[in-house]
Specification:
This protein has helices spanning about 1-30, 35-55, 65-75, 85-90, 105-125. It has about 130 residues and is an all-alpha fold.
C-alpha cells in the first residue's frame, strides 16, 4: 500500500511541475510558447488522471488520450463523467500541435489554461488533496 501511495505522490508531483510551467509561461505567453503552454496543460491533467488510476490500482496503457483514461476511471469515479468534454479539448495538445502546420490561437491557450485550472481542482479533490 505504501508503494502505491508513493507512485500516486510522484504522479501528483509531476503534474504540479506541469502546472507550475503553465503558470510561469502564461505570464509571458508569447506566440512561440503557446503550444508549449497548451502541451503542459494536457500533461498536467494526464498525470492527475494517471495518479487517480494508480490510486485505484487500475492499470493503464502508455497513451495520451485523456478521454480514454477517463473511461478506465469511470467504474471507480462515475461522478467524473461530466469532465469528459473538457478532457477532449485538451487531448489534441499532447501531440498534434507540437508539429509544424498547426497553430494555436491565444483564445485556445486561455481556454486550455482555464480547463486545466478547473480540472486540477476536481482531480485533486478526488485524490483527497485540499484546495490550493
Amino acid at each position: 500500500c505504501m508503494k502505491r501511495n508513493s507512485y500516486v505522490s510522484e504522479w501528483v508531483e509531476k503534474a504540479e511541475g506541469d502546472f507550475e510551467t503553465v503558470r510561469d509561461l502564461s505570464k509571458k505567453n508569447t506566440k512561440r510558447q503557446r503550444y508549449i503552454i497548451a502541451f503542459h496543460c494536457q500533461q498536467c491533467i494526464e498525470k492527475y488522471l494517471k495518479a487517480l488510476l494508480t490510486y485505484h490500482k487500475i492499470e493503464f496503457p502508455k497513451q495520451h488520450d485523456l478521454e480514454q483514461l477517463l473511461v478506465l476511471l469511470l467504474e471507480k469515479e462515475p461522478l467524473l463523467l461530466p469532465i469528459r468534454r473538457s478532457l477532449g479539448k485538451l487531448t489534441p495538445f499532447a501531440v498534434n500541435f507540437r508539429y509544424p502546420g498547426e497553430d494555436i490561437a491565444p483564445k485556445e491557450v486561455r481556454q486550455a489554461i482555464n480547463i486545466t485550472e478547473q480540472l486540477r481542482v476536481v482531480l485533486r479533490e478526488c485524490l483527497g488533496f485540499k484546495k490550493k
